[in-house]
Design goal:
two-stranded antiparallel sheet; globular
Length: 268
């Protein structure tokens, strides 16, 4: 199996969104992908939706040998987002597809309450080449031809689920580690915005970076800050984080915990 992009979706009580999310992944123009959906012991109809999606994707992407590029994994307890991604990469993909893992270039994370445009993921991956080719990119769009940059992670420009308003274009980390979203797209950004971190809603990093950093820190449980921590580790390696404004997605935001609910603030 020839794979360049491992796409991981972590679900938890995601029945209202997961089917549309998977169909948007399947309809994208990204090449040589494998989609793994790992469920954190949902109590709603998510697993039924995933079973239906597996039949759909087998029919769509199957080949004469019977191999297909979709797998869902059902956990018997909720281990949190970070641990679920790590489980999918280290305990499933590397063990079940060791040869395919050798050719895998990128790890892409997509939240289950996200809808992708056809070119969202392909443009997201192009960020890594685009950064290397654009010598005039520096902090949040300002030109600086003296700076050589390389991307460690990339994120999409995120709209609300209706697709009307920009929710965020990456994140900023304050000195006290309170985070906030970049909500205004800077002018002269050349299609790329440097950020302190990219959210896990639509997130890409090189597969080798994820392996070398041993994945996410599972102490961030059940959700939030694991991608912030990972981006800080990349920056210590002199790698930068960019949002690609040509990679656009719609995100319901907070579907699992309820945005601005008591659980939302407790987990944050």
């Amino acid at each position: 199996m020839d794979i360049e992009n491992l796409i991981v979706i972590v679900t938890y009580n995601s029945q209202d969104f997961i089917e549309d999310c998977i169909r948007s992944v399947a309809s994208s123009d990204i090449k040589k992908w494998f989609l793994a959906v790992i469920d954190n012991n949902s109590s709603d109809g998510t697993l039924k939706k995933l079973s239906d999606a597996e039949d759909f994707l087998k029919m769509l992407r199957g080949n004469p040998s019977g191999e297909h590029n979709f797998k869902y994994i059902s956990l018997n307890k909720n281990i949190g987002f970070a641990a679920a991604v790590n489980h999918c990469v280290f305990k499933f993909f590397l063990k079940e597809y060791p040869e395919a893992a050798k050719s895998t270039q990128f790890l892409v994370l997509v939240n289950p309450d996200v809808w992708l445009e056809k070119n969202t993921l392909s443009n997201l991956i192009l960020t890594f080449d685009k950064v290397q080719d654009a010598a005039d990119i520096s902090a949040r769009g300002a030109a600086d031809t003296s700076v050589s940059v390389a991307a460690g992670a990339a994120g999409s420009l995120i709209y609300d689920y209706a697709g009307k308003n920009v929710s965020h274009a990456g994140g900023i980390i304050q000195d006290n580690f309170i985070t906030s979203h970049i909500e205004k797209i800077p002018s002269g950004n050349n299609g790329l915005i440097e950020a302190d971190y990219a959210t896990g809603a639509v997130f890409a990093t090189k597969f080798k970076y994820f392996l070398n950093l041993r994945g996410f820190d599972t102490g961030y449980r059940p959700v939030y800050f694991e991608e912030v921590d990972f981006c800080l580790k990349l920056q210590r390696l002199k790698l930068k984080v960019f949002i690609n404004t040509g990679s656009v997605a719609r995100h319901y935001e907070g579907a699992s915990v309820g945005k601005f609910s008591a659980n939302f603030y407790r987990y944050y």
